[in-house]
Amino acid sequence: xxxxxxxxxxxxxxxxxxxxxxxxxxxxxxxxxxxxxxxxxxxxxxxxxxxxxxxxxxxxxxxxxxxxxxxxxxxxxxxxxxxxxxxxxxxxxxxxxxxxxxxxxxxxxxxxxxxxxxxxxxxxxxxxxxxxxxxxxxxxxxxxxxxxxxx
Length: 151
Known about the structure:
- This protein has helices at residues 6-27, 36-70, 72-95, 106-111, 117-146.
- It is mostly helical.
- The chain has 2 domains: 1-70, no CATH class; 72-151.
- Helix 1 packs antiparallel against helix 2 (36-70) and helix 3 packs across helix 5 (117-146).
- The longest helix has 35 residues, at 36-70.
């Protein structure tokens, strides 16, 4: 008896279910925006997409953990990379400010809660992280260009 190909069967089932849901959604499209059937099919398709995304993330994490623990020696480089990114984010967080920005019309955004001290700190962190990574990339480019002449 032939062995079952579980990844292929899983792909086949997910594809068939997705195809049925998409066909059902397309068949229910109408110009009436208050049509509840169309809204229900949109909701079902969105939930299916969320389920697939969640499963993909879980499988990705499980495979990454499996790979990590199966070869700890080669995982050391990946851990250094993760530690470097976390260090850059930490430095950026410490450099970031939670003060409100000063520009024309900022009062409107502060009043409706769009801009909060936490949001300004997160934006500063993202900007500083980008600046640091860009600076490190330029330094690496300069180093790789100059180091050739000293070899």
